[in-house]
Fold these 2 entries.
Entry 1:
Amino acid sequence: MSQAPSPLGTPVVRREGRDKVTGTARYAAEHTPPGCLYGRPVPATIARGRVDAVHADEVLALPGVHAVLTHHNAPRLKEPDDPILAVLQNGRVPHRGWPVALVVADTPEGARAGAEALRITYETDGHDVLLTEDHPGLYTPEIVNGGYPAVRERGDTDRAFVTAPVQVDATYSVGALHNHPMEPHATTARWDDDGHLTVHDSSQGSTTVRDSLATAFGLRPQQITAVSEHVGGGFGSKGTPRPQTVLAAMAARHTGRPVKIALPRRQLAAVVGHRAPTIQHIRLGAELDGTLTAIDHEIITHTSTIKEFVEQAAVPTRIMYGSTTSRTAHQVVALDVPSPSWMRAPGEAPGMYALESAMDELASALGMDPVELRIRNDPGIEPDSGRAFSSRGLAACLEKGAARFGWYDRDPRPASREEGPLLLGTGVAAATYPVYIAASSASAHAAADGSYRIRVNATDIGTGARTVLAQIAADVLATPVDNVRIDIGSSELPDAPLAGGSSGTASWGWSVHKACTLLLRQLRERTGPVPADGLTVTADTQQETAGQSPYARHAFGAHFAEVAVHSRTGEVRLRRMLGVFAAGRILNSRTARSQFIGGMTMGIGMALTESSTMDPVFGDYTENDLASYHVPACADVQEIEAHWIDEEDPHLNPMGSKGIGEIGIVGAAAAVGNAVRHATGIRLRSLPLTPDTLLPYLL
Ligand code: MOS
């Protein structure tokens, strides 16, 4: 039997590409069951207090309005697994934008008109929404996002710092950021007569949605079907269900009709999570040859009053560079703000902005090349845990990137390159992201006609999940990729974890790999043809993924950026950007490149254009549409390249892959900021680097 060449690593085209560009791929809001009504949430207009009265009668009198749900008449929930889902259960307003009512009508327009007409009076308490370095409410939590300890200390960092011959002591800040996927959060819910609930939900994982709804509504998971067939991005904001999922199910139960809720863009900022702002104090101490002796990274951040979410921004510092002493700590304060949550590389994205900016400052202080400084401090073992790395490609990424980018052509002196009114400069920064994996199950079916069918409740949030899973199956089964059908995106399929933590392909893929391996064994052991109804094998990876690896497992990368800063306007234009990543085996070169470039592009936004400003009077973020929250457009991203090094790592999963969805954003903003510093000599320590922040130093 001739073996087909492995499809792993090849640029297989996205399976749903045609469906998407022709409009036949249907998203959560494009499912309209017969008799469907439309819901429109009513956001609280105060930042803290209680609902006093809701004048629902006036709105119920409007044509086409079917119901006004409030905390007086909405279905009672059991305690949800996430407090942000406990909507319309009491009159408390924990932050501005919290849903205090839902208007349900025949049409989206009717629901909107009703929501806008609804008069609500409140009892208002004073609110506190501003994060400050010396806020009296700051405390040290036990753990931070990801389950990491809030504080780690090794050696006497203070002493090592004060005695170090070269020191950097600087405070960086990253304001709040919002995910803003192209597809706003949406849910269509319906209850069948037998009490079965079906939701089409815009989600990163419908097994999670099903289980979360089961808890909230006191149902068995088998009484719920959650479908997330096509999802227009999430970046963490759809990692778990958001309030519209519960509101749609409540409204459908209340009215006895299917109900659809598509959140308007302007409501997203308050209810789907955000990257919490961080104030980061870093102290680095080094010997004259660049060897680090002290690393101190302290985070101050906020959470809401209903949920403790602590952006783990100091955690990457525990693994990046060797140092005889190290201290990493987080403090948080609960404010009257929307609940922060996951946003692409939570922790690593803001934390590595600060650390990699500080490393650039240290290189300047030492008079040393910043690539060389990083390589000099590349540790042999994970500094914090003492564990061996399963693989660590940082130095290789820096070297390959420097060569491809032409890094060493630069004159290291700041403000040394001009082109008319433009100041030109280059910058470098490192990237890292941990390897996460979760248990998954999948089934593999061999049909009598020789084709295969894989079933697994994976989610494609725009990444190419279907395609890469087909490649993994085809590789094991030694069959063409087109001979494998992939069913994903429904909780009726074998349970699988969400598309989050850059763990999807590894987690789902391992169960697909296992099911296909077992199926192949059965096929080989059989004598005679496959029976008419085929053969099916189901497998899960509970055992394989239980426990902790003895290895420290992380992906690494390096970013190189070239900027032109206009000396009269302060405008920063990114001329080119190049990233090199070490992420195990790359399973699909086309979709991987897209993910790396997508992450880098989000990092460009973080560096130059994206920010959310807290209005202390209203207690809310002012940028709540894409006209004011500036994500990079094509013109902002001129020349961008992603490359990788081939990394063979036997300690990951049968495919040998690390996650790639998040690492692209990590360090990208620091590379741009370091390039701006090189171009101008100006070191700004907060993002984004908008013209108004640079101009005072240029004039
Ligand atoms: Mo990602 S922020 O883990 O969805």
Entry 2:
Amino acid sequence: MQKDFKNKVVFSAAQPSGVLHLGNYLGAIKQWVELQNKHKCVFSIVDYHAMTVYQEPKKLREKILETAMIYLAAGINPEKSTIFIQSDVSEHTELAWILNTIAKIPELELMTQFKDKAKRFRSKVNVGLFNYPVLMAADILLYKTDFVPVGEDQKQHVELARTLARRFNNLYGDIFVVPQAIIRKEGARIMGLDDPLKKMSKSAKSPANYIALTDEPNLIKEKIKRAVTDSGKEVIYNKEKKPGISNLLEIYSLASGKTIKQLEKEYEGKNYGEFKKDVGEAVVGFLEPFQKDLKKLKENPDKVRKILQSGAEKAKLIAAKTMQEVKKAVGINY
Ligand code: AMP
Ligand code: TRP
């Protein structure tokens, strides 16, 4: 079935765990905001995914609401897009079960994120963590999603969703759309400030790794000032030789709207100190309107709860319909 452009479906999500950081914003959320003017967008707060690593219940409850506020403050407009909490739409776990029956163990064993986390948790790794990409595939396929805007680290998971969609369709008939990842060139992999060889991460041990979206301006400037840079003193983009400076250039470019080439020119003959000071200011300026809106939303959690409730109702309508088709296709409804 050919859909016209306006009717293409976009789905994406973030986990309400740890702190949402500049990498999440630049790699994912910034794209979401732009896409909502072109397509039908559905954005979820995936609490069941967050639970694959133990979350303190009280904290999780707060984080779920805060993540929703972050989406809204970043410019996701509930009149244009559907925003909801994953666990409010039970079809996600229902479909995940069915997809589990066609996903293969070796396929899941290949997932880089699982391998990384399994290394950290060793024998204590839980089955949910292993299964996580299947639930993610269910999230995506339930909405017959065409496009999945994510950061680079999720590419492999979207690939699995594509495989499962095709496999299901071959076995049971054409139910699912085979989704496509949308990964931007710039910002798809923002690196840690304390270690520019690893991605900026929610679960990093040290807060020096990331700029949390809720960090105060002075802290942001301080963190960027202390960011690990490279030997030499020229501000040029070269990911291999200058991973630290390149990461800052990428952040600066996305925060200011200037191209990396322009910035390289601007900083010819200037030193790292000057450059970092300006990157700090650009990031603070970029986050200022967002942080203002976030503060306002925090004063009005009930408004956000209402948005989530009506988002869940809208999502449920689509999810339930797909789930009915799926049940019929596999032969379990009567
Ligand atoms: P998560 O923090 O794992 O819930 O990720 C939410 C979204 O942010 C996903 O689309 C990720 O790919 C994206 N993301 C996470 N970390 C980074 C990063 N360091 N750089 C760019 N995108 C990221
Ligand atoms: N696994 C994703 C992450 O950690 C979050 C996620 C869950 C997701 N379900 C999704 C992203 C569906 C895109 C589409 O970033």
